[in-house]
Design a protein that fits this description.
Length: 133
């Protein structure tokens, strides 16, 4: 069973008794993930990629500077038709390391919520910009 936790600028998941953290944007080979079990730890190469997210007021406009609550949800739905939260972080712009997959990103602004599908590819970095309409 996979249980996800909220985090700030790095992907974290709990799988059984192992804690798995993906270093955010610094050092290590592409897709490297640190696995820890109590005091022991190992580095494993797992397919992960980097994404940066921001919102602009209009096409060609500046990045919004207000705190935005970002939720990263699974693209696919389970048997009950539900998406599952992979990550949650707050910031005007955020950078994340996530397992390679498709996701739906929700950006909660003070006056509305934006939604956009994103792709995360192993070893690649993508910049996504959502436009507030």
């Amino acid at each position: 069973m996979l249980r996800t936790l909220s985090f700030a600028l790095q992907a974290i998941a709990i799988i059984g008794l192992f804690a798995m953290t993906a270093p955010a944007l610094a050092g290590g080979p592409a897709g490297a993930v640190q696995l820890a079990f109590h005091e022991n730890s190992q580095t494993a190469a797992l397919p992960a990629g980097r994404v940066s997210l921001r919102v602009i007021e209009r096409v060609g406009g500046p990045t919004l500077k207000v705190p935005i609550k970002w939720r990263i949800m699974t693209y696919g739905r389970d048997d009950a038709g539900q998406r599952h939260k992979i990550a949650e972080v707050t910031g005007a712009t955020v950078e994340l390391v996530l397992p390679a997959a498709w996701y739906i990103v929700y950006a909660q602004l003070p006056d509305r919520e934006l939604r956009h599908p994103i792709e995360v590819t192993a070893g690649k970095s993508f910049k996504y910009t959502l436009v507030k309409k």
